[in-house]
Amino acid sequence: AREGSRPVPGDGAGPPAPERVLFPPTFSVSEIKNKQRRHFMFLRWKQQQRKEKLALKKKRKKEREALGDKAPPKAIPKTIENQRVYDETTVDPNDEEVAFDEATDEFAPYFNRQTVPKILITTSDRPRGRTVRFCEQLATVIPNSHVYYRRGLALKRIIPQCIARDFTDLIVINEDRKIPNGLVLSHLPDGPTAHFRMSSVRLRKEIKRKGKEPTEHVPEVILNNFTTRLGHSIGRMFAALFPHDPQFIGRQVATFHNQRDYIFFRFHRYIFKSEKKVGIQELGPRFTLKLRSLQKGTFDSKFGEYEWIHKRREMDTSRRKFHL
């Protein structure tokens, strides 16, 4: 074939090899004007990144297997959690002051097994269907809880009635545009009261591969990463919602996991498949909480004294600073 001409099939040259298109170093996918083409090129770039990362991971694994015992220790990746700024209010389990506070705070009768939790779950005024279903499912998670749907009754009138009927805690689920978006947890009769922003609510029917309906057994409670004095108080509030003695025969566990000041709630059933393997099924519901304020005493929006209020402009100056 002449120089510069295309090879003729059958002359032994074969079809030309496809060339890999390389973008200039300064080129960005965001410069592509066409939206569909830009999205397609971005997905291709992400796929190529995953392939390269997987290939590098396999290469390092083979090198470690070849070295055997002489392989260097694995490097610990840097994350926001392990780069966390130290908080001076972090709780030391052996601190005598913390032990004294726990023995004299509002939750001491519960941890001393002098009181049995009795919870009232209510809603904002005239709730809609999704909030109603969420309250009903939450009542199946928390034992000895009762659901009341508000019809124009103020919280200041509900709290004295709860105290008179020996309720130990009050949970209020607020909603906006038919979606649950807030939770108020008030410990009775003397407080404290915590205000949370609620997000990512999933009902049981919206959870994939969910297990069967939960039973009436008292679940176990797991509290993760509540390390500061504030986090310690919030963790004790959650623990006081459940009876102190779980029924392990039910194999149900409620988890409050704090990560970067977001509290993730999950409800599972577990089963031991062998001595080393455990299977879990999520029962639902699930939701995420973000603490907005902690108030002394019971709910009082006008004259209440606040122990802690989340102020974004003052407190969220560093991504590595956490309060719980």
TrEMBL record:
One of its GO terms (cellular component) is nucleolus. Residues 1-22, 48-75 are annotated as: Disordered. Residues 63-72 have a biased composition (Basic and acidic residues). The keyword rRNA processing applies. One of its GO terms (molecular function) is rRNA primary transcript binding. SUPFAM superfamilies: Class II aaRS ABD-related. This is Ribosome production factor 1.
